[in-house]
Every structure is written in structure tokens, then in C-alpha cells.
Write a structure and sequence with these properties.
six-stranded parallel β-sheet; 352 residues; Quinone Oxidoreductase, Chain A, domain 1; seven-stranded mixed β-sheet; 11 helices; alpha/beta; binds NADP nicotinamide-adenine-dinucleotide phosphate; binds zinc ion; 2 domains; 17 strands; Rossmann fold
Length: 352
């Protein structure tokens, strides 16, 4: 006789309606399928994307919404077809939980560009049409193909933000060969930006932070920056004209892009990973003169995310975190919105 395993009900924090404060609730996690692992979540990072989405800043969302795509924990159950994980393994989940797995992008390991749409960890519909629910919870069930291995050298709390902030900066830095002899600027010293500084420094690049003020200068230099400038000082843009091979902007609001493009050297690239809710304007002459590129970058594929985790373990890199209890999520959101995060809030899942 076969029995159908039952879905499990677990506690979570959800926004019941757009923009509403998050509150404790209970959600169902699917039974562990053939290729699934069940993870007991230990830590879940708070990404600015969580805030954009619960406020519907990028468009209509699915509610109640359980955010969270920077998840680390321990495997507690595996399906019969699981080959890559065992009970007790340290595991992570990032921004995606599935994709078509057949298109050219999926086959190339760029599931984030899946032509049928990768399935986001929350605020999306899974292959059965059920809403996906993210990491602000105590457990999650995910296919092994979208589950990451957390190397032994990385603590689970400081590793959690690597699953989004880490890969989002690692991918464009690696793609543009940030390394010795390259001048790299990171705009915005927040969750993404501080990982960008650490990773670009570990890759061997000469790193500059471009922050709104000099308020976090000591931190920036300690994290690995060689230089630190305030963008509220108009002279910064003149002083640094034509300087950088690569600028990565992590800023969550529209920036005057022409001013930033002016700081690139000829053939330099401005990679934008910040995802403002409003459009930006651009004078195309800012690109033409120096043959400059303006590029978007979207997290990174599963294979590259594992490569990033291994790189961070090898270089002893984790996020600078402030661990909070689940009852502090709403206050943490306000602090993120006022650029008062040093440098990632991480929820201790045992408090959910
Ligand atoms: P965050 O921790 O809030 O960091 C953003 C930083 O931008 C702030 O700390 C601040 O740094 C700077 N900033 C904020 N307001 C600014 C303003 N008015 N003018 C200039 N600078 C300002 O956010 P995050 O979690 O790192 O995420 C950043 C953005 O990336 C969000 O839009 C998020 O949705 C997006 N994102 C994109 C991807 C992707 O794949 N492309 C992945 C994850 C997140 P200073 O105080 O140093 O100026
Ligand atoms: Zn994120
Ligand atoms: Zn695909």
C-alpha cells in the first residue's frame, strides 16, 4: 500500500496585503517529492528586493507574501531520487527554486534567464500553479537542482546573504574580470554593495566605494576598499572623471546615470544591479564618447552561485550582519529604507 505524504504546516512571517506590516502566520510546505530536499531554515537574510516586492514597487504581487531568498539551514529529509544531499548537510536556497531546465539558458547554467521564466523563491507560481513562499519561515522544500551546498568554512548566519547579495555582485565582477590592474567602483554600501567590496578586493581589483556620504568610510576601508568618496560632494564626479574600468551600481533608487558614466574610462562598463521602482533617464552621448557600456545583471545561475560560495569559503568571506528576531522584521525594513543597515539584517529562524 502506498501513502501520499501530507503537506506540512510551518510558521512563517508574511505580508497579508501589499505594503502591510509582516505578521506571523502558518503556511503549507509541499510533501518531499522524488528529487526534493526539506531544509530546516536557520537563517534568512533581508534583501531590499523583499521590500520592493511587498510594496508592489515592481508591479502586482501575490499575497499573502512570505519574502526571503537568502536562506541557509540543514537538510532534514530527502526524496528517494536525491543524490546530491543527505540528511544533516548544510544547504542554501537563493532567488530561484525552479526553471524549465531545457532551454539554451538553463542548459548553459543561466537559469535566471530561462525563456519560460525561472521560478522565483517567493512571489511566483510554481509548476503546479501554487504560489511560492520564501525564507521567512522555519522550513522549505526545494528540488535538489536548486539547492546549494554551504561549504564547511562558512558559518550559516554570515553565509545567508551570499545567496542573493553575494552572487549578484560576484557574477558581474567575474564576468568583467575584476582583478589585478582593474579599477572597480561600487556604488552604495548596503547589503549588495558591501559584498561587492569584499569580493572585488578578494579578486585583486583596486576598489573604490561611492557612497552618499563619508559616514561609513571607516567600514568601507575595513571591508577592503582602497578609496572612498562621497557622492553628495559634486567635486567627486570631477575628481574621478575617466577613472574606472568598471562601476557596479547597487542603488535602489534612480541615479543620475550620466554623472556616473562620466567616471568610466574609455571602453569601461557601468553594470547596474540596483532595481529602482521608477525609470531613469540617460543621455546616450554619455555612452558614445568613450565607447562605454551600460549593462544590467540579474543574480547568477545555480552553478555560478555554488562557485561563488566556494570562492567565499576559500577567501573567508561572509556578510557583515545584524541578526534579528522575527518580531524585528518591520523595523529592519525601515532601517534598510533609510540606508541604516550595516550591512545585512539576517533573521534567526528559531524566532519565527
Ligand atoms: P540596501 O542594503 O538598501 O543598499 C542600497 C544602498 O544604496 C544603500 O545602502 C545606500 O548606500 C544606497 N542608496 C540608497 N538610497 C540612495 C540614494 N537616494 N542615493 C544614492 N544612494 C542611495 O539594498 P540591497 O539589498 O543591497 O539592494 C540594492 C538594490 O539591488 C535593490 O534595488 C534590490 O532590489 C536590487 N537587487 C538586485 C538584484 C539583481 O539581481 N540585479 C539582486 C538583489 C537585489 P550608501 O548609504 O552607501 O549611499
Ligand atoms: Zn535579493
Ligand atoms: Zn529554461
Amino acid at each position: 500500500m502506498t501513502t501520499t505524504p501530507a503537506a506540512a504546516t510551518v510558521p512563517a512571517y508574511a505580508a497579508p496585503t501589499p505594503g502591510a506590516p509582516l505578521e506571523r502566520t502558518a503556511i503549507a510546505r509541499r510533501p518531499v517529492g522524488e528529487h526534493d530536499v526539506r531544509i530546516e531554515i536557520k537563517y534568512s537574510g533581508i534583501c531590499h528586493s523583499d521590500i520592493h516586492q511587498i510594496r508592489e514597487g515592481w508591479g502586482e504581487g501575490i499575497f499573502p507574501m512570505v519574502p526571503g531568498h537568502e536562506i541557509t539551514g540543514v537538510v532534514t529529509e530527502v526524496g528517494p531520487g536525491v543524490t546530491r544531499f543527505s540528511v544533516g548537510d548544510r544547504a542554501g536556497v537563493g532567488c530561484m527554486v525552479d526553471s524549465c531546465r531545457e532551454c539554451d539558458h538553463c542548459r548553459a547554467g543561466n537559469e535566471q534567464f530561462c525563456v519560460r521564466g525561472s521560478i522565483a523563491t517567493y512571489n511566483a507560481l510554481d509548476k503546479n500553479g501554487e504560489p511560492t513562499l520564501g525564507g521567512y519561515s522555519t522550513h522549505i522544500v526545494v528540488d535538489q537542482a536548486f539547492t546549494l551546498r554551504i561549504p564547511d568554512g562558512l558559518p550559516l548566519d554570515t553565509a545567508a546573504p551570499l545567496l542573493c547579495a553575494g552572487i549578484t555582485l560576484y557574477s558581474p565582477l567575474a564576468a568583467r574580470q575584476a582583478g589585478p590592474g582593474k579599477k572597480v567602483a561600487v556604488v552604495g554600501l548596503g547589503g549588495l554593495g558591501h559584498m561587492g567590496v569584499k569580493i572585488a578586493h578578494a579578486m585583486g581589483a583596486e576598489v573604490t566605494v561611492l557612497s552618499q556620504s563619508l559616514r561609513k568610510k571607516d567600514d568601507g576601508l575595513r571591508l577592503g576598499a582602497d578609496h572612498y568618496y562621497a557622492t553628495d560632494d559634486p567635486e567627486t564626479f570631477e575628481k574621478l572623471a575617466g577613472t574606472f574600468d568598471l562601476i557596479v551600481s547597487t542603488v535602489s533608487v534612480p541615479l543620475p546615470l550620466d554623472d556616473y558614466l562620466g567616471m568610466l574610462s574609455a571602453n569601461g562598463a557601468l553594470v547596474n544591479v540596483g532595481a529602482p521602482e521608477a525609470p531613469v533617464s540617460l543621455n546616450l552621448l554619455s555612452l558614445i564618447g568613450g565607447g562605454k557600456a551600460l549593462i544590467g545583471s540579474n543574480i547568477g545561475g545555480i552553478r555560478e552561485t555554488q562557485e561563488m560560495l566556494d570562492f567565499c569559503a576559500e577567501h573567508g568571506l561572509g556578510a557583515e550582519i545584524e541578526v534579528i528576531g522575527a518580531d524585528g522584521i518591520n523595523a529592519a525594513y525601515e532601517r534598510v529604507l533609510s540606508s541604516d543597515v550595516r550591512y545585512r539584517f539576517v533573521i534567526d529562524a528559531s524566532t519565527i
